[in-house]
Specification:
This protein has three helices and three strands, in the order E-E-E-H-H-H. By secondary structure, the protein is an alpha+beta fold.
Length: about 120
């Protein structure tokens, strides 16, 4: 029998991917992100990382930047909503809603918030 030379798994340039433990990503019951990595043979528990719902976007942006994919960070950034003056009908609707809720007459009369503007879907 002829024996083949022992392959060097650690130093050979032919190795495309080194060993990788399995990673699961899922949403928890409160809308946060859970990243779970399979434990190694010498560990008792899986490694678990929790990202709160309010921090998911910042976390994903940081991961993309660390991976050198700033182009994807820009592509995923939400577009700023367009602001425009309120129409007469929108001002009247806001006035009626304020009067029904018992708000003072001068409250919010001359202010314009993003909640007043209609939402436009990004294309």
């Amino acid at each position: 029998m002829t024996s083949t030379p022992e392959f060097d798994w650690l130093h050979s340039p032919d190795v495309a991917l080194q060993e990788q433990r399995a990673i699961a990503v899922y949403e928890n019951t409160v809308g946060g992100l859970v990243i779970l990595q399979e434990r190694s043979w010498d560990e008792e528990d899986d490694t678990c990382i929790f990202i709160t719902k309010t921090n998911i976007d910042a976390f994903i942006a940081a991961v993309l930047k660390a991976a050198g994919r700033e182009d994807l960070v820009q592509a995923l950034a939400p577009a700023e909503p367009e602001t425009r003056p309120l129409t007469n009908a929108e001002r009247q609707r806001r006035y009626r809603n304020n009067r029904r809720s018992g708000a003072p007459l001068a409250a919010n009369l001359f202010t314009h918030s993003k909640e007043d503007a209609p939402l436009y879907a990004a294309e």
